[in-house]
Amino acid sequence: MADTAPTGYDSGLYNADLAPVPPARRDWSWLNMATVWMGMVHNIVVYEAASGLMALGFSAWECLAVVAVAYTVLFLAMWFNARAGTRYGIPFCVLIRSAFGPSGAQVPVLLRGFCAVFWFSVQSYAAAQAADAILSTLIGGWTSLDVSFLGMRMHMWLAMALIWALHGWIAGHGVHRIRNFELVAGPLVIAVGLLATLWALRVGHGPGPLFAQPSRLHGAAFWSAFAMGVTGMIGMWATFAVNIPDLSRFVRSERDQVIGQAIGLPLTAMVFTPMGILTTSATVILFGHPIWNPVELLLKLDHPLITVLGGATLVLATLSVNVAANIMPAAYDLINLMPRRLNFDRASSLVLVLGVFFMPWLWFDDAASIYQVLNLVGGLLGPVTGIMLADFYLVRRQVLDVPALYRHGGRYDGHDGWNPPALIAFAAGGVLASAGQFLPALAGLSALSWFVGVGAGAGVYLALSPRRPLPHANDGIAPSEA
């Protein structure tokens, strides 16, 4: 059961996993933060994102420009949104109570939790395909296990069980062991990516045909597509721009947080994206058409050693992104719903179970529907980012009464636990960010949906929020020194 809440704290808002991390236990360095991001950035979805950009008509160099702008914006948003976590040691689901109230906070927390479980399910099924390729190479007759159950063959069920078990093993060792896993996994996947890039350069005797492909976009069409590309890349990480305090609460200083994210986010993305383009360029030479799905590429190469090592790398890459970007935040979100019943171990196990119930094998190949749903949800999280930034920097002026975040009836309670300005701003920003998907006359907003959501959410929240007295210096837990 959860630890007893301190005197004056509400047991429905507190347990040991939601408690502020004391300064003595905030021991993540810039290296830990950088390697965690390395483990998240080089995943299958990001690898394939370059194909979407090139399909829009960009040249390879323009793809890199889109990635550079998108990840620089993300870095800035996460840098500022991470600061409260580093200063006070609190997770997203507690920090968000400052703006939404302890009851109203459940709205963005549930939305963020849904996204985390959804992405966990999608990424894990992709890893299961890689595991299935490995097992079919090592075990004769593996694919003959073709008994179908709930629309999926038995050999894929076994591959999924293996992937889910690996996730459970890593997550079951706790947050600090996750840090140690990422310290190895992040750089290792980058190293394997460099080997694949050297292979691609050898096959293509240079950058290859994709880097020679000219841009098909010019003038207004270019800038419209550029905005859409930047927004799409940001959309993949819009969920993490919200809950970055879940990681930054363990970092020892603001300096470590900033340096680690700068190295692990924009810099790693700028290294990883050309790796994907170069490797795919080699497939054009070998097979006559680009192959962006790495599992399909491994099967196409049809070399046992390459299939096993490449598949293992894909599994490792998926584990590294899922445990930090999906299982950890989803577990905190579930703990926030039931702090009396759940701790991190139980909540992370529940995430694994919920991931199966999403049944990704039934719709995995319908990418258009997947991304339409995720873009819609991502558009709704833009206002949450704007509200959080406006609340912490402009309304609270970076000073929080930490104990009040763990009890009802205090300065953050709003009206019976609900803060109307945040809820109205969330609704207004969500409507504006998503309107372009439903109203053709506002289609132009879709290209900048995340930016519209952030701006609208922050603006409406500030307009509706009264100026509040700051907490006294001795009200909250002392922040860590930067």
TrEMBL record:
Signal peptide: none annotated. Keywords: Membrane, Transmembrane, Transmembrane helix. InterPro entries: Pur-cyt_permease, Uracil/uridine/allantoin_perm. The keyword Transmembrane applies. CDD domains: SLC-NCS1sbd_YbbW-like. It is found in: Membrane. Belongs to the purine-cytosine permease (2.A.39) family. This is NCS1 family nucleobase:cation symporter-1.
